[in-house]
Amino acid sequence: MGMYLNLSIKEVIQKFPQIEKILNEYEIACGTCTMGLCLLKDILEIHKLPPAESKILMERIGRVITKGPEENLEEKKILSRPRPNVCSPAMKILVAEHNWIKKWLALIPEVITYITLNPPEKRDLILAGVDFIRNYADKFHHAKEEEILFKYFSPELEILKVMKEDHTTARILRQAILDSLDQDDEHGLSTNLQAYQQLLSQHIKKEDEVLFPWLEKQLSPGQLSDLFSKFQEVELPADFHPQDYENFIQNLEEKLKGLGLMANTLKAR
User: Fold this and answer.
1) How is 190-230 classified by DSSP, letter by letter?
2) Which domain holds residue 181?
3) Is residue 185 one of the residues assigned to a domain?
4) Which string of DSSP letters, residue by residue, matches 143-177?
5) DSSP 97
6) What is the CATH number of the domain that holds 154?
7) pLDDT per residue as tens digits for the range 107-161
């Protein structure tokens, strides 16, 4: 068991696929992580399971690794638990920005339907969406994470490497969306938009439910206050106004809702 504690969770799951199923029971979705670089020994600390559940989880994982009768281990039923929320003003800023990004992600299926039915509006709508991705989601939001928040921690921290890799992949997909648009590739455009939606949806879930609460606990009150000040002091280009992008999302929601294209999105909320 000991030798596996310092392996990445992806390596462990590849060797012992049953461990992914066990982790999922505890609402730890390491198997679907884009990179899975976090070490097995760090999983419990990052996800902050109660001590009793942590003990049972590690015993179950140990049984799988040592090929013992995992199914015979006495278990306590794992109940769905409320996700930890961030409390500090700095982290709440990031979560609030996530909410606007999630609104855009939720609209993507309806946007795909709309541009299929209204080809003349395709280019302008997709360019507006990419502008939101580039300037609000990436330059405005991700920059706070990479250039300010993450600087408080070691660049070798595996979970931060995973988040940065997600950001890089998102930028690649953003360019792929533009390339598909320029090439008038309908299938490629739809595929890349959906890939972006899936990537960022999972990414935001990991940050809101796991990373941000964990990072918040590692920072002192003074550091959190300093972080908030730095967020407030971020210099924005003269022509950049966050409210304009939030209005874009709100107006697009209303437009698609008025056309009857929002039924699935509203039902999912």
Assistant:
1) HHHHHHHHHHHHHHHHHIIIIIHHHHHHHS-HHHHHHHHHH
2) 89-268
3) yes
4) HHHHHTGGGGS-TT-HHHHHHHHHHHHHHHHHHHH
5) H
6) 1.20.120.520
7) 999 999 999 999 999 999 999 999 999 999 999 999 999 999 999 999 988 889 9
Q: Whole-model pTM above 0.85?
A: no
Taking the C-alpha atoms of residue 55 and residue 61, their distance in angstroms, rounded to an integer, is: 10
Does 137 share its domain with 224? yes
CATH number, domain at 59?
1.10.3910.10
- Say how far apart CA 257 and CA 70 lie, in whole Å: 50
CA 219 vs CA 65, 86, 88, 116, 233: distances in Å:
35, 12, 10, 48, 19
d(CA 70, CA 64): 6
Q: Which two tokens stand for residue 189?
A: 């455009």
Around 6, how many Cα atoms within 13 Å sit in the side-chain half-sphere?
2
Number of domains in the chain: 2
What is the Cα–Cα distance from 159 to 36, expressed in whole angstroms?
8
Q: How many CA atoms lie within 13 A of 241 on its CB side?
A: 5
- Per-residue CA distances from 190 to 92, 134, 249 (Å): 32, 18, 19
